[in-house]
User: What shape does this take?
Amino acid sequence: MTKNQKIFIFIGGGIGLLCLVSCAAVMLFFRNVGSAITNNAIKSPEEVQAAAQEVATIDMPFGYSATEGMNILGITMAIYKSSSSDVFIMLMQMPTSSDLNQSDIGQMQQAFDRQYSSRGYQMQVVDVKDVTIRGNPGKVIISEGSANGVENRQVTVFFEGNNGLAALFITGPINQWDTAAYDQMIQSIR
Assistant: This one.
């Protein structure tokens, strides 16, 4: 075996070992992230309601109850569903600076648009409104579109929550939409 062949084998072995260690580290990382998400999932209605209170106080429409949530890495989420409707409500807060700015809103909206697009939704923004929530400026974004032949609407409300940028998402079929109830809920945010 020549000196060059030995060097090639040594370098190839080193690269192979580095790849093996890197793959193991990535697998360990994703296993730990998955475990953290699972361990921080909230299933009891009382705990979901407590998580929602960390974001803001809000009066849910009649018939909606807390079903699940999550509190991980500073992200708090509470989901509400109704037994008589396919419209669901999600209240979420992410740790950010104390000022609600267009960049934060844009980034959150893009992330959720990508999520809906990956599920077959073709949502288009149909209206944007500036609002005042809790004495601070907020933004309401109304999107509509279809998935699997069903016309859907999503109302996204961005506002300053108790601990950072918060968002309220109301999503579901247009034919089950209760505009008055959802408008009243948005006005109740405190």
In short: Residues 132 and 145 are 27 Å apart (CA to CA). The beta strands are 41-42, 64-72, 75-82, 85-94, 122-133, 136-147, 150-161, 164-173. The chain has a mean pLDDT of 82. The chain has two domains: 1-39, 43-187.
